[in-house]
Amino acid sequence: MESTAKRPCLQEAFTVPEETATVSSPTIDHLQQEVLRLNKILGRQTQHNQDLQLQLQQTQSAKEALQEEVAQTNQELWGEKQHNQDLQLQLQQTQSAKEALQEEVAQTNQELWLEKQCRHDLQLKLQRNQEQLQNQVIPWDKVAEELDSELVTLQTVGGMMSCGPIDSEDPRSLCEFSFSQLHKHLLQHAPNITSLITSIGQTSDIPGFMDVPSLAAICLLAKKNSDKVKGFQLLLSLMLVARATSKQVFNVLNHVGVCLSYSQTFRYVESTARATEQSKELKLGHWIVAYDNINMQKRVVHERHPRHSESWNFTSRLAIKVSNLPPAEYKDTAGIPQGNRQDLAVEDLLPNDEDDLAFHKSRVKMVETLLAANFKCCAHLTTKKQNRTKEQKSIIHPLSIIDVDESYTDNNVIILGEFQKMLGIDDTTQQCVVGDQATCRSIRGARHRRVADVHSARLLWAKENPGDFHFAWECLKVIFLVFWESTDHPGSLAHLKNLVNRSNVTSAAKKYQQADEFLRHTIEAHLTASLVTFLKISNSSDETGLPTTAITNEWLEKTAEKFANEVLAVPNNEDEHDADHIYNFHRSFLHMGLLYEDLREAIRHENGPV
Question: Which residues, 6+ apart, have CB-to-CB distance to 374 below 8 Å?
Fold first, then answer.
């Protein structure tokens, strides 16, 4: 109460006058009606807004559907346009094919017309010949006499078909037999028989060509029951032996006179080998001898053993004439060459500056050849060919086979003793004996056994040396041993072998041809990949990375020189890629691979470019 008394203004403010406390009833009703009217208007407005929103959504959906229909129509129009372009292209191709076909038809018609004209000329010529034949009489008696005379000439002992006779003591007499010389003699001494048989059995369009069946037919006509060895028959017999022809085929062909009998052929082979072995030329010249084992499976029938074959072991031998004798400083006091094998020194194993320079030039030349051959941007360039020494045909004397197994040390003593008798050498001479790795090991074992023996023939003259083929094979095996790794190692030979599906290549490189081909392809691929990275292009067919106008022969030489100095140089420990093991692995492989390529060149072309 006190607070209210103290604040009369507040009381007055909160006091409602009596005259305003009551509102008339009509006014309230009017207001309520107005509120209801406004609510109805608001409801209709809300319903109208909802209808507008629904219409807007329908319009939006219709718009999207229309847009999809327009896009589909545009896609169909584009496909129709593309189809029209394809049809136009096919029409152009058809038109070109039609023109080409018309040209071909015109050419064919021209050829048919020429053939028709030629046939007409031949018919006229045939008619004239028939008229001439009707007007003259053929002297058949004279023709028969000429044919009989030529046949007698062919059957004359020591005539043109006997080719000798072949001297069994001189195997080189068989090399003097010449088909062209035989054809010339036949045309000279028996022209009618030769032309008749050649025209009947003509199989070539070359004029004057005489095939083997025609020669065989003339040999049948010239057959004579004598012991003279005919050159043509002997050549066919040796060819059949080389083809492993059965004995029944030999007998049939010998019966008709085409070749020698089976026993006669092998008697000639045996006599030739025996005469070669006893030749005095082997004791006069300088030779390199070689031998290796021959293992053959012979079919046999055992009643109590399940085996149907057994192994026959022999030793084959040959002598190769030394054409390039060593320098004078490698001869002994008597002035006799000591063979091609000498004890190696340090200078023979380690390369000198001259060897490094020669090998560098070889690598540069290899890069130039690869760029010009495999890179499209350098296809217009030409490289100079390497100066290679022309291969000289070796003089090889095959020797008789020895019925011993060279895998045993005692048998190697017998084999080397036969060589010593044949060549007439002693322990004061050094003779090169070539063989594979097992043969060289056997020679060392035989020499060691005779050195410890008191026997006079101590085999100190035998200097074993592996052949070039076996040496290259061993180098190939070394590269496989170092760089084969596992299939999980990226870029290893095992990984690349599976990548290109070379299933016939093994880690031990047991098949030389397949392993050598795979290794050379891998070396070329590494060299190509290195050049692509070095030239900063995408691949060997990329022409955009390098300007074509700047690619000249001078540019090729400079690029190959720079690439050889920076990439193909010998890897060292101070390389900037020490931590990159994959880079170092491939660089070492490329270096070893190029050494192997150069070794193959040196073997094939004597010293080769190095």
Answer: 528, 540
By three-state DSSP, how is residue 435 classified?
A: strand
pLDDT in tens, 11-51: 454 454 554 444 456 788 888 888 888 999 998 999 999 99
pLDDT of residue 427 exceeding 80: no
Task: Report residue 515's pLDDT band, with 50, 70 and 90 as the boundaries.
Answer: very high
Q: What angle do CA 332, 334, 335 make, to 5 degrees?
A: 70
Largest separation between any pair of C-alpha atoms in the chain: 182
pLDDT confidence of residue 77: 92
HSE (side-chain half, CA atoms, 13 Å) at 83: 6
- Tokens 């691979």 belong to 593
Of 501, 402, 510, 416, residue with least CA distance to 463: 416
The secondary structure of 303-362, three-state, reads: CCCCCCEEEEEEEEEEEEECCCCCCHHHECCCCCECCCCCCCCHHHHCCCHHHHHHHHHH
**Using CA atoms, how far apart are residues 307 and 289, in angstroms rounded to an integer?**
37
CA distance 127 to 125: 5
Q: Where are the alpha helices (DSSP H) in 429-578?
A: 437-451, 468-483, 493-499, 512-535, 553-566
Half-sphere exposure of 209 (CA within 13 A, CB side): 10
- Per-residue pLDDT band at 5 (split at 50, 70, 90): very low
Q: How far, in Å, are 109, 115, 126, 130 from residue 123 at the CA level? A: 21, 12, 5, 10
Distances (CA, A) of 76 to 14, 69, 83, 91: 82, 10, 10, 22
Q: Average pLDDT over the chain, rounded to whole? A: 77
Q: Which of 461, 423, 462, 469 is nearest to 442 (CA)?
A: 462
The answer, yes or no, to whether residue 224 has pLDDT greater than 60, is no
Torsion sign across C-alpha atoms 240, 246, 247, 251: negative
Token output for 134: 């009707």
Instruction: Name the pTM for this structure.
Output: 0.55
Beta sheet of 431-435, edge-to-edge order: 396-402, 309-321, 287-299, 431-435, 462-466
Size of the chain, expressed as the number of residues it contains: 610
User: How many percent of the chain have pLDDT more than 90?
Assistant: 10
334: left (phi over 0), alpha (psi -120 to 50) or beta: alpha
Are the C-beta atoms of residues 212 and 270 closer than 8 Å to each other? no
CA atoms within 13 A on the CB side of 366: 27
